Amino acid sequence: MRKNRERKIVDFLSILESASASGYVSGQLLAKSAGISRSAVWKHVRQLRRYGYGIDSTHGLGYRMVSRTSAPVPWELKKRLKTRIIGKEIIHRDSRDSTQSIALAIATKCPEADGTVVILEHQKSGRGRLKRKWLSPAGGLWLSVLSRPRVETPSMTVLPLVAALAVRNAIVDTTHLRASLKWPNDVMISGKKVAGILLDVSAEAEILNYAVFGIGINANVDAKEIATKAAVAQEITSLKEELGHEVNRLELAAAVLQNLECQIDKFVSVGPGPIISEWKKNTDMLGTRISVLHDGNEIQHGIAADLDTDGALIVISDSGEKSRVTSGDLRIRF
Ligand code: BTN
C-alpha cells in the first residue's frame, strides 16, 4: 500500500520535473500526463512540498518545481547510491520511537533482509550507548542499517570502529570540516561530539547473525538545546553550527551509506588491520591524558597509548602499567 503510494508520488515527481524544465505546467496537463484527477495533482504537490521540494504554483500558469529536496527520502537516496547491498531497501518515516527498534524488528522477522536502512526525521525515544537517551529532534540524521557481514564473533568488537570511521569519513567528504574520532565510537569536531554510533548484534556459535548500526548525526539541530535537555556531561555540536549554514542531509546520508558499505567490505575481506590503522590516523586522542568513566565515575586514568587489534584501548597508568579498556566513556584531561 505504502509502496504503491510512494511509486505514484515518484512518477508524479518525474513528470513535474521534466515539465518544469520549460516553465510552468498547468494542473490539467499534469493530471492528464500522470493519469490522475486535478485534486490528486494538488494532493501530490502538497505531499512533495512536505518532503521538502520547492514547488511554485501561480494562478493561471500552473506549477513549476523550483528546488529539490535535501531530505533523505528513499527515491533520492537510491539515485545517489552505488552500493551493492546497503540501501536496496530504505524505510523513511516522519516520527516513530527509534530507527534502531524498527531495524531490530526487521532483523529478527526477516532473516533474508540485509542492507535495510531505516531513517526517521524525528525519534520519540532515541537510544544512546550505555542505556542513555539520545535526543533526536527534526533536523538531525537518525538512521539504522541492518547488515549481515560474514565475520566471526571474536572480531565483532571492531564493528563499532568500522561504523565510526565510515561516519567520520562521510562528514569530511560532505562538509570538509575537520572531524576526528574519539574512542570508542564518537565523531568529534573541535573537541565536541557531533555524532555517535550504537551497535546491536546477534550471534550464534562463532558466527555473526546480524548487526544493526545505529547512527546519529547532529546535522541541522540546535546543539545547545540538545545539551540543555539531555544534560550530557560532554560538549556537543552540530554540523550546522560548525559550518554556519545547513548541511544537505540527503548528500550526507548517501555518503554515510556509501562509506559504511565500503568499510564493512574492507573489514570482511582483509580483517581489522586497515580499519585500526585508519582509525588511529584520524584521532587526536592517542598520546593524551584521559580518564576512563563508568556510569560517570572515574575508574582509571593515564595516557591513551594505542588501539589493540580488537579495538580495545591501551592505557598506560602513571606507574607505567599497561591495561586494556574494552568499555566505558573517555574524558580527555588537559
Ligand atoms: C551514542 O550514545 O553515542 C550513540 C547514539 C546513537 C544514536 C542513533 S540515532 C539512530 C539510532 N536509533 C537510536 O535510537 N539510536 C541510534
The side-by-side strand order for the widest beta sheet comes to 3-4-5-9-8-7-6
Compute the separation of the termini in Å: 57 Å
Number of helices: 10
Per DSSP E runs of 2 or more residues, the count of β-strands stands at: 14
What is the succession of H and E elements? HHHEEHEHEEHEEEEHHHHEEEEE
Question: Helical percent range?
Answer: 25-40%
Low-confidence stretches: none
The profile of the biggest β sheet is: 7 strands, mixed
Class by SSE composition? alpha+beta
Distinct bound molecules: biotin
Radius of gyration from CA coordinates: 22 Å
Question: What is the molecular shape?
Answer: elongated
Strand content: 25-35%
Q: Kindly report the average pLDDT value.
A: 94
Secondary-structure map with pairings?
Layout: H1 2-20, H2 27-34, H3 38-50, E1 54-58, E2 62-67, H4 74-80, E3 90-96, H5 99-109, E4 117-123, E5 141-147, H6 159-175, E6 179-182, E7 186-189, E8 192-204, E9 207-217, H7 223-230, H8 239-243, H9 249-270, H10 273-281, E10 289-294, E11 297-307, E12 313-316, E13 322-325, E14 329-333
Parallel strand pairs: 3-4
Antiparallel strand pairs: 1-2, 4-5, 5-9, 6-7, 7-8, 8-9, 10-11, 10-14, 11-12, 12-13
Bound molecules: biotin.
The site of biotin has 21 residues, from α5, β5, β8 and β9.
